[in-house]
Specification:
The complex is a heterotrimer.
Chain A: H1 2-21, H2 24-30, E1 39-47, H3 54-73, E2 80-88, H4 93-104, E3 109-114, H5 118-130, E4 134-137, H6 144-147, E5 162-164, H7 169-182, E6 187-192, H8 196-211, E7 215-221, H9 230-239, E8 243-247, H10 250-262, E9 269-271, H11 278-282, E10 290-294, H12 305-314, H13 324-341, H14 352-359, E11 363-366, E12 369-372, E13 383-390, E14 393-401
Parallel strand pairs in A: 1-2, 1-3, 3-4, 4-5, 6-7, 6-8, 8-9, 9-10
Antiparallel strand pairs in A: 10-13, 11-12, 13-14
Helix pairs in contact in A: 3-12, 3-13, 4-5, 7-8, 13-14
Chain B: H1 7-12, H2 14-31, H3 54-59, H4 61-71, H5 77-80, H6 83-86, H7 89-114, H8 123-138, H9 157-179, H10 184-204, H11 206-216, H12 218-231, H13 241-265, H14 274-287, H15 301-326, H16 329-348, E1 371-372, E2 375-376, E3 381-383, E4 386-388, H17 390-413, H18 416-426, H19 428-433, H20 438-464, H21 474-487, H22 492-508, H23 516-530, H24 539-545, H25 550-567
Antiparallel strand pairs in B: 1-2, 3-4
Chain C: H1 2-32, H2 39-56, H3 65-96, H4 105-125, E1 139-140, E2 151-154, E3 157-160, H5 161-183, H6 185-195, H7 197-202, H8 207-233, E4 235-236, H9 240-255, H10 260-280, H11 291-305
Antiparallel strand pairs in C: 1-4, 2-3
Helix pairs in contact in C: 1-5, 1-8, 1-9, 1-10, 2-3, 2-4, 2-8, 2-9, 3-8, 5-6, 5-8, 6-8, 9-10, 9-11, 10-11
The chains are: A alpha/beta, B mainly alpha, C mainly alpha.
Chain lengths: 403, 576, 319
């Protein structure tokens, strides 16, 4: 009985393999069409293209698409045509892993921009690392992704293929602390949403703030899906802070600011680039609230013009959102590395490892300022700007470099 | 159809109907040698003359079936012998021709959408459509055949085993081909084709026969199913892309099978089941040698699995003990609340709002690959000349876990405990009155189901490399429940099918990904209205949902009798 | 002490919100023994209905306080109630009614399906209405002059006007409910049906009509809660119904499911417990991040020690 079943499985195998080889003659006719003599290299995107984070994800995809189109137009890499391969991760780690596996098994893929969520990145990085594909994230802020588990005491880079264009919390938090201290604020309450971004921001901020002579009078947390902050606000209010530093994103920060003022706590809310969005003001951010963001203000930055104009001209139906500029820079960083690695490569797959090597020497002025990576793969950009809500819109307050 | 066309008309037109049907089928068969679309890129490139694409080769099976089913009876039933009388020729031909029409229509619609415009459909496509339409219009004019009685025909054992093996081989082949369809339109066309073939075979009587053969050779069936599942990675030619999906389907299915004990057998609605999977995953992650692990105890994986299962079942007891007494709808909401408690707690145990166990929302990443006696799951192994990648290794491991779960499930289902569970599901008060210890049995189901999920979670931790709280949200519990409900509560095959559908379709049909949840919600509602027992119905369950349907009750009774007659051939006098 | 009273006010306002939603669970459960899992979504739909009314009115921003309070707000409430009731009755008619005699599992699973469907429907299609904002992320709820941002100072305690509105709405609704249930024919038919549906039918009560009334009343109150939520927290989004619905159900069980007064008491207790837990549980577990956990732990404790709820009138074990 057992033997017979084995035989039958064998028959099945033979049948299956026959079917896959049976169509060999057709494929020859398809190639050699309009692509010309250029070879194809693909840049992948892994981001949430559907679901409730799709606005951010589509912004990432479109910005990468724009960078690729511009590179193809200017023939940035002679002899090669770049293509976009966008995969949806639904903001879920296991779907992200499927997407990464799919991209890794496509021999033309030489680099990937993504992911949006740090938790998805944790599943995606090992897959891409095993395939030696460079990955540049526009949005992950978890410090452990580049510096390992003991990122504070003994930083060690876990994956050589991983880079990011967004700054980590270690830059934004201290810059905000210095600004507040400079404004004469000595007592601050901190609140964060327990996500890696918010938590990291607050802990870096608190360290710099107390080191500079200020006091953190209350440290609170909220759940990311909370709507009602009255209990926290009452608790914070009792401590009498002069400002509230919030680690998190605008969907909570806007209502928090509004509810604070309604509860009689009339002090500014300050946050990182996660709240630097028009939505923050729409959802309740009021005049005097502050945010830090990376780079000099986009309208004063000459190197941001190709992105802003290009995005408008390309006619995408979605906005570029919070991470568009970072994604554009991430794609251009990969393209800059490809200029080196593809120049001598015969096929895309063999250039994968050289691309990772070339990333460390990438340096240019991008949409968010200077783009280059340190020995851990983190962005070296340390130029930041403080923005304040002034009559219902964000206005640049102070641009400086974190020392 | 049966209502509109009278029997008299059918007898009158049976010859022209057969002729037109055959003509239509031939047209479709010819069409695959003509291009179906202008230009390339539609489906799997159907724009060639004289060289049908793999998909077209499959699709053509349907019109060939129509042709065969219509042509063979022309030989004359007397000459065909006994077999001809126990199968349904005409009705199967009708089903086949309608399936052809549906499949061809989907294919053409996909071409039109993918190449933007109906103008891109070429002569072959139109010929196929016209042929299929002709056949579908003509075949209803054939006289209805009687219900097939193939399953009552005695067949030798070797034929039954060959039948099972052929079916399993077909399943393997079909699954491998389906997974390799990267194009959504091609996938849908293929799906329509598969459903069509299954329906035709059912109509013809083959499925009934296979069912009986399977029941008679239960071991062969189960064994060959596992062999086929085991052989699946060999069809993937070293590619990891599909294996990554397949191994996830198995993890999901394992958890769904655990939930099936709780919901399907005992009838307790658990809406926080994903928490047990999560508890297993977190336990395994913390006990692994990841750099992010927070405790200094790293036992071998075999031990870890048992601990993970134990932790999950402990949580099951913890939540079950107070709530199983009040029973009923409360349980649903309490388990839902428990799921939320679990997620929030995992999020909070970060050293900030509680002791540091899970690193909060960052979770535990960098979980090392499993290594069994030098067999590294992260490495690519070459077996029989085929590269077996990382995900295939985990796929095999999950296969073992699932086999274990199925063995446990089957044995429990047909034991004293299983009968006690079903009794509780049907009528708890009556069960209690009959001396069934309902509380202990419910608790056992709850803890047992949790244990299985914990084991699956432990493998998932290593498979996923990282464990974070945001994977264990309510929606995942709802998906697990949907897998059980969709497939068929209380059945193993049904739940496996349900899990596969729920995990595979979103991967293959990315174009509607934004509407995925909307359709999911709608599907749950519609399913409950029209087929609450699921795709594969557990017979007892089916009766429960259609209590007033006398006909169904009789049908099932009859089925059971034939079934028993086959199982016990010597007891011929098994009559009503 | 000041902090205690402040949190008491916070808790009461939150609890009033839960109570308004909880009534819907309790009324429906009392009559058809169905946990209408999608009720949280009815609450969400009510908030979007009120917002839509404001959009249709031309997004009035600078109406006077009186005009806002006596024209705009009632219109928005009405819009919210109409939307909620319509959606609730549609789900009752097409999703639940065909399953009235089905095993218990079927309507419960249907309810989950309806819940997911309604969330996704709002997320995907609300923005497709011409001129309406996209509902894929949170939408700022309009400010009503006289309520939004206003507050009264009592000693050291600040009482916000939206809180006053929420608690007031609960008070008015409770009185209305009492009158409706005890003094109107439909209300008394509801009591009769909840006590014994078969006998009630024999007495000539149209049970279908009673069930529709129960769904309608619950949906109406949920819509009021939706508006209160928008005013209190300043924004609404398609996911707001899930957690709120879960909490409200907890409140209903807390008070004794099937008991209208119980739902009100349970809601208020739950709200106060949540607010107090944030302030008065010491150490790490007193963080606001744990407050949902405490609410659910309370639910489990109640089920263990007092399964009939605080005001329990119903026998719980009816499964």
């Amino acid at each position: 009985m057992f033997k017979r079943s084995f035989k039958l499985a064998g028959v099945a195998l033979v049948a299956a393999s026959l079917a896959f080889t049976g169509c060999g003659s057709r494929t020859e006719a398809t190639t050699g069409g309009s692509a010309g003599t250029n070879k194809i290299a693909k840049i992948g995107v892994i981001a949430p293209l559907s679901g409730d984070l799709s606005a951010l994800g589509l912004g990432i995809r479109n910005s990468v698409d724009l960078a690729i189109r511009q590179a193809n137009e200017s023939k940035a890499i002679p002899g090669w045509t770049l293509e976009l391969a966008a995969e949806d991760d639904e903001a879920k780690p296991d779907i992200g892993k499927n997407a990464a596996t799919k991209l890794a098994s496509d021999d033309a893929v030489v680099g990937v921009v993504g992911t949006l969520n740090s938790s998805v990145a944790q599943s995606v990085i090992p897959v891409l690392d095993a395939a030696k594909i460079v990955q540049v994230s526009p949005a992950n802020t978890n410090p452990a992704l580049t510096k390992g588990a003991d990122y504070l005491t003994a930083p060690a880079r876990p994956n050589a293929n991983y880079f990011r264009t967004c700054t980590t919390d270690a830059v934004q938090g201290p810059f905000a602390a210095q600004y507040l201290l400079g404004e004469g604020v000595k007592k601050v309450a901190t609140i964060h949403d327990k996500k890696s971004y918010g938590q990291g921001l607050v802990s870096e901020f608190s360290k710099a703030f107390t080191a500079g002579g200020g006091t953190v009078v209350a440290a609170e947390t909220i759940n990311p899906d909370d709507k009602n902050f009255s209990a926290v606000i009452s608790k914070v209010k009792g401590a009498g802070p002069e400002a509230v530093y919030y680690g998190g994103e605008y969907p909570q920060a806007g209502p928090l600011s509004k509810q604070m003022k309604a509860a009689g706590l009339n002090v500014p809310v300050m946050g990182g680039d996660g709240i630097f969005s028009g939505e923050f003001i729409k959802l309740g951010g009021s005049d005097g609230d502050l945010a830090t963001s990376v780079g000099a203000p986009v309208d004063t930055l000459a190197s941001a013009k190709p992105f802003l104009d290009g995005y408008k001209a390309a006619g995408f139906s979605e906005g570029y959102e919070a991470y568009g500029a970072y994604s554009y820079d991430a794609a251009n960083a990969i393209i800059a590395a490809l200029k080196v690695s593809l120049a001598s490569a015969t096929d895309a797959k063999s250039a994968r490892e050289a691309t990772i090597k070339a990333m460390s020497s990438v340096s240019f002025d991008g949409a968010t300022g200077k783009v280059a990576f340190d020995e851990f793969g983190d962005s070296v950009s340390r130029v930041l700007t403080v923005y304040a809500v002034t009559s219902g819109a964000w206005a640049a307050k102070k641009t400086g470099e974190l020392k | 159809m049966r209502v509109i066309i009278s029997d008299q008309t059918k007898v009158q037109y049976r010859y022209p109907a057969r002729a037109v049907g055959i003509l239509g089928a031939v047209m479709v068969i010819v069409s695959i040698f003509l291009p179906w679309s202008y230009g390339q890129g539609a489906l799997d490139d159907v724009g060639f003359t004289g060289a049908p694409s793999p998909l077209q080769m499959f699709v053509v099976i349907l019109p060939v079936l129509v042709l065969v089913l219509l042509a063979i009876p022309l030989v004359g039933k007397q000459r065909l012998g006994k077999v001809a009388k126990v199968v349904a020729w005409n009705t199967s031909a009708k089903t086949a021709s309608i399936a052809t029409l549906v499949t061809v229509t989907i294919a053409l619609a996909a071409i039109a959408i993918e190449l933007k415009g109906l103008a891109n459909v070429e002569i072959g496509g139109w010929l196929a459509l016209i042929g299929a339409a002709l056949a579908a219009l003509a075949t209803p004019f054939l006289p209805d055949s009687p219900e097939p009685t193939l399953e009552r025909v005695k067949s030798p054992k070797w034929a039954q085993i060959v039948g099972i093996a052929v079916m399993m081989a077909a399943v393997l082949f079909a699954a491998a081909f389906a997974l390799n369809q990267t194009d959504a339109g091609a996938f849908l066309t293929y799906l329509a084709f598969l459903v069509g073939v299954v329906l035709v075979l059912r109509q013809f009587g083959v499925m009934g026969w296979i069912g009986i053969a399977g029941a008679n050779n239960n071991r062969v069936l189960v064994m060959s199913a596992f062999i086929v599942a085991f052989a699946f990675p060999f069809t993937q030619d070293g590619s990891d892309a599909n294996m990554s999906i397949a191994s996830q389907v198995l993890i999901f299915a394992a958890a769904a099978l655990g939930l099936n004990i709780v919901v399907g057998l005992v009838g307790l609605l658990d809406l926080g089941y994903i928490a047990f999977l999560g508890a297993g995953a977190f336990t395994a992650a913390v006990l692994s040698e990841s750099a992010f692990s927070t405790i200094d105890f790293h036992p071998p994986f075999i031990v870890t699995v048992l601990i993970a299962g134990a932790v999950s079942s402990l949580l099951g007891l913890l939540i079950g003990a107070p709530t199983l007494r009040v029973s009923g709808d409360y349980l649903a909401i309490v388990t839902l609340a428990f799921g939320e408690i679990f997620r929030i707690t995992m999020n909070n145990l970060d050293g900030n709002d509680g002791p540091n166990v899970t690193n909060g929302s960052n979770g535990i990443s960098g979980i090392p690959e499993l290594n069994f006696f030098g067999f590294d799951f992260g490495e690519v192994h070459t077996i029989l000349g085929v590269e077996i990648g990382r995900f295939a290794n985990y796929y095999w491991l999950m296969l073992v876990v699932i086999a274990l779960i199925i063995v446990v499930f089957m044995n429990l289902n047909y034991s004293r405990i299983g009968r006690g569970w079903v009794a509780i599901r049907e009528d708890e008060l009556a069960a209690e009155a009959m001396g069934v210890n309902t509380f202990a049995l419910k608790l056992l189901a709850f803890a047992g189901g949790a244990f299985l999920a914990g084991v699956a979670g432990a493998v998932k931790a290593h498979h996923d490399v990282s464990v974070t709280p945001d994977q264990y949200v309510f929606l995942e519990s709802a998906f697990l429940l949907a897998a059980v409900v969709l497939g068929g509560m209380g059945t193993v095959v049904g739940v496996l099918i349900g899990a596969t559908i729920l995990k595979l379709l979103p991967e293959k049909l990315r174009f509607f990904s934004d509407y995925r949840l909307l359709l999911f919600g709608l599907l749950m509602v519609i399913m409950m209205q029209f087929r609450p027992e699921g795709i594969i119905a557990d017979e007892r369950r089916q009766l429960e949902f259609h209590a007033e349907d006398e006909e169904l009750a009789e049908e099932i009774e009859e089925e059971l009798i034939t079934h028993h007659a086959h199982l016990n051939p010597e007891r011929k006098g098994f009559e009503l | 002490m000041e902090l205690f009273f402040q949190q008491l006010i916070n808790g009461l306002s939150l609890g009033a919100l839960y109570a308004l939603i909880a009534v819907g669970y309790t009324v429906v459960y009392g009559i058809v023994q169905l946990i209408n899992f999608a009720h949280g979504e009815i609450f969400m739909v009510g908030a979007f209905g009120a917002f839509g009314t404001w959009m249709i009115l031309g997004q009035p921003k600078d109406w006077s306080v009186a005009a806002s309070l006596f024209i705009l707000l009632p219109l928005m409430l009405l819009g919210g109630i109409v939307t909620s009731v319509a959606v609730a009755l549609l789900t009752e008619r097409f999703a639940y009614r065909p399953l009235r005699n089905a095993p218990r599992l079927a309507p419960l699973i249907t309810a989950i399906g309806v819940s997911v469907f309604l969330q996704e429907f709002v997320r995907l299609f609300y923005g497709r209405i011409p001129g309406f904002p996209d509902a894929k992320s949170a939408i700022a709820f309009p400010a009503i002059p006289g309520i939004s941002g206003e507050s009264i100072q009592v000693g050291g305690v600040l009482i916000q006007m939206p809180a006053v509105f929420t608690i007031g709405a609960l008070a008015v609704s409770t009185v209305f409910l009492w009158y409706f249930v005890n003094r109107t024919k439909t209300g008394r038919a509801m009591i009769a049906t909840s006590q014994d549906a078969d006998t009630a039918r024999l007495m000539g009560i149209d049970v279908d009509k009673v069930i529709v009334a129960a769904f309608g009343v619950g949906a109406g109150l949920a819509a009021i809660a939706g508006v209160a939520h928008g005013l209190s927290y300043g924004n609404i989004d398609f996911r707001m119904g899930f957690l709120a619905g879960l909490k409200a159900f907890t409140a209903a069980v807390l008070g004794g499911i099937g008991n209208i007064n119980g739902a009100v008491v349970g809601g208020l207790v739950l709200g106060i417990v949540e607010a107090m837990a944030t302030t008065f549980i010491p150490g790490q577990f007193g963080s606001s991040a744990w407050k949902d956990v405490w609410a659910f732990v309370l639910l489990i404790l109640v089920l263990v020690f007092r399964p009939q709820g605080l005001l329990g009138a119903k026998v719980v074990d009816r499964a």
